[in-house]
Amino acid sequence: MSVFKIKIWFTACSLSLLLLAGCKDEVTEFENPYIGGKMPLGLKFNTASAIEPTQGSANDVVTVSVIGAEQYKTQLHFQFSGEEAEIVSIVGDVVKVKVPAAGSSGSTSIQIGDQVFFGPQFKVFGKISDDPYFKAKIGANNTIYDAYKMRSGKYLMVGEFTDFNDKGIVLAIKKIAETTYEGEVQRTLQLGTGVVSGYLSAVTSSPNDANIFVAGNMSAFDLKGPVKNITRLTSLGAIDLKQVDTYSSKNGGATYPKLTVPVFNGGTDAPIKRIFYFNNGIIAVGGVKYYISHRYDVGRTFTYTSGNTTLTGYRDSLVRDSVPIRQVVRFKLDGSLDNTYHFSGGTTLEGGNGNILDAVMQADGKLVLVGAFSKFDNKAAGGIVRLNTDGTVDDSFQAGKGATGYITSINWNSTTQRFVLTGVFSSFNNQPIQNILVLKADGSIDDTFVSGNFDSGYPLFAQQLSNGLIVVSGNFKKYNNVRRAGFMILSPQGGLAPGYNTLGELTGTINRVLEERNKDNKRSIVLLGSFRKFDSQAVQNIKGLVLED
C-alpha cells in the first residue's frame, strides 16, 4: 500500500490580526495511522432482502442474503443471538442456515475469524410467548417490588412507581396500584394518593382482607400520619385512622379537639424489605435497629401574662418511644411491639452479622432469612437461617454450613414444597454448587437439581412454578455456555427447559413472578421488577407471558 500524507491546515491568527492584516496559513503533514490495517472483507448483509422468513422455530431452514458470502464459505459462521447455526449451503450470495435448537430471538450475525457482522433481527418461536390477554402494555414508570392477591382475585402491586399504565393522569397512583391479574388498573379501593414520598416494598393482609398492611420507606400514607415505614389500611384500602386524646384535650377541655392518627401505632427506624402475616401479627424484616411508636398524651404546660393576669396553657408534645431490635420485628395488629418474638429476657436477640437480603415464610409460620451474614444470633449461619414462630433459631433446619458467599434471593413454592435460592457462592453445605440451588422443605439440598455454569454475571432471582419449571433472572450472559442474557427458564433438574428459552434478552431484573391460568386455561405468568427491555421490546417493569404445557 502506498504511503499518503494527510494535510491539516491550521489558521494562525487572532480576530484583531484578521481585521488588520489577514491570516497566515501553516501546513503540517502526518502519516496515515491506519497503514497496515486489515483490508475490508467485502462482506455485508443485503439490506434489500436480508432474511426470509423473519421468524421461525428451531430446525427451520432460513435464507439469508449476504453479499460476498461465497468466497468465505469455508470460514463463515452464522449465529442466532450468539448461538452457532448449521450452514446448509452457500451459493453465491445466498446462505441457507438452520435455526439452532438453543437459538433465541434477537440479532443474527456472521463471524469470520475475529470479525463479526451483525444482521437483521429474527424471532424464534417456542413454548413461551406474549400473553394475548395481558393489558398492562405501558406498564409502571418505575420498579415494582411486590404484589399480593386479595380474596376478590385482584392484586395490590407496590413499588417506586408514580404511574401505572398511564392511569395516574386521571387519578393519582403513588407507589401502590390495584389491578387485575392481567394488569388492568382497578378503582374499587380508596387508596388516595398512596405514598407521595418514599416507596413501598411489601404488601400483605390479614385473613379475609379485613386489613391490608403495606411497608417500605414512608412517613405518611395518603398524606396522613405519622407513619414509620409500615401502616395498616382498612378493607377498603384507606389508611386506618382513629381519634386520640392528646395532653391538651385531656386537660384543656372541649376547646382542644382530639387528634386523628393511624390505628397502627408502630414502626421502624429504617426501611422494611419484607412483611408477613401470621397468627394475628405482622413480622417485618429489614436493616432496622429500633422499633418506634408514638405517644400523644405527653405535653407540657406554660404560663403567659395577659394584663395583670397570669394564665396557664397546655401544649402537646409528640414523643417517640424506641426499643432496640435487630433486623426482625413482630408487630401486633395495632402496631404495638410483640416482645416475645426474637427476644430473650426482655432484650432483643443479636440477629445477623451482615445484611438480610430476602426472606420467605412457610405455612407453619417459620421464617427463612437469607443474605450476607455468617452468623445469626451468634450461631453459624452461612447466609441462611430459619426462625421458629417465636423468632429463635430453628436448629432442625438442615442447611448446614450454608453458602460460601452470600445469597441474594429465596422463594418458596407451596405446591412443589421447594425453596429456590440464588446468589454469589461456589458451594453450599460443603457441596460444590454454583450460584443457584434447590432446597427441600427441611433445608436439605435437593440433589436432583444440578446447577450449571454462569458466564459474565450471576443470577439475582429465581422462582419455581407449580409445574416445577424455574424462572431465573440476573446479569448473566450465558448459562452452560448457551446464550441466555438476563432471563431463562430451567427444568426441575437444572438444565435449560427445551422450548422455553426462545425469548430474547432481558435488561434489568425480576422481583416477583405471579402464576395463574389465563382465559384460554393456559399457564401464564406475570413478571414484576425493574426492567425496560425484554425480547427486543420496550417494556416497563411488568410483562405477561403464556407457557405451553
TrEMBL record:
A Pfam entry, by short name: DUF5122
Domain called DUF5008: residue spans: 31-120
Entry keyword set: Signal
InterPro entries: Delta_60_rpt, DUF5008
Signal peptide from the UniProt entry: 1-21
The name this protein goes by in its record: DUF5008 domain-containing protein
